[in-house]
Amino acid sequence: MPALLRRPLPVALSIAIVAQILFLWRLTVPGILMFDEIHYVPAARRLLALDGPANVEHPLFAKTLIAGGIALFGDNALGWRLFSTLAATAVVTGVFALLWLGTRRLRPAVTGSLCALLGFTVFVQARIAMLDGYMAAFVVTGAACLLWAMHGRPAQVRRRWIAGAVLLGLATGCKWTAAPYVAFAGIALILLKRGRPDRWRGMATIPALLLLGGVSVVTYFATFAPAFFYAREPLTLATILPFQLHMYGQQTQVLPAHTYQSSWWSWPLDLRPIWYLYEPVDGAQRGVLMIGNPAVLWGGLVAVAACAIGWWRTRDVRTGAAAMLWIAGFAIWAIIPKSLGFFYYYYLPSIWLCIAIAVAFDHWRARVAGWDEAYLLLVAGLFVHFHPILSAAALSSPRAFTRWMWLPGWA
What we know:
The chain is mainly α.
């Protein structure tokens, strides 16, 4: 292997560039709002104008970023979605970083990041102005910073730890579903630092936990700064906490049934994806299906089981962490008090599957040598096959979607 390809930074940058190009290609198709863009783009417009509160069931930061795109590139499809592509590239690069930092091996880092890139869910969320893509980007990069902080000089450890806490605070400022990851990070610190003073050198456990919680909370509340300048109903220091209760009430209200609703337990099985778009637009029949790559979603479950078995047999921290990351990220949906569920809620756990896949191949590499390459070819082949209904490509007819409908619930 050329020396350049043995160095993580050039490889990570190459994958990031490829990802960004892929996400940008035909980004402005469709040129109309699709799916939940009908909620978040108008909210971003009002935020940009500082008109007053809108879409109050969610925090502000992701909508602030959408508003920034509109301010820079115009109130059009490019402005709505461009920053979403950057968030998705951050996810792909963050997966690479997590795996490199966790294994110190390029092969699993490349495997995991390519699974994320070609796993459908990151690609689809990269090309729509929704909150989940931003939330995931900050969670993944925040986790990478916290893992990076595990080793280094005390000053480096502290800076990286604070950076990770800030990113998790920003993630929570996009969607509340990021908040459990602050707790997960604290639990991971307690478990991994026990008896290991070489980890997070210079930071005692209790001060590190207080720093993590304090910085993330302060960052979260700082994301509400634009709301203090609304022309109507501005937030104040006296109303910002009651407003959180109002948001909670909006989040937990009972909603009417929806065509694409699904139960949380069904998401890993890829049973009920969501059509973000399926209609004649921009001169052709087009569709955007939020679905998981079957090789990644179904193969990822096998990988989680393999990682759990690997941890049980060897107590290898990497396999245990990979399995628990997905298990914890998925299990929270069993207790989150939402009256309706949708497949796109599985977006972040679908990214953790890519970590498990890469770690499983790496852990069992003596038994499955070369399988990872064949697996990536399968993942890429499925991406190419499904690309027309992931990317709003022109379709031959209104019934063209049937070519890709493997299961009854996909239609």
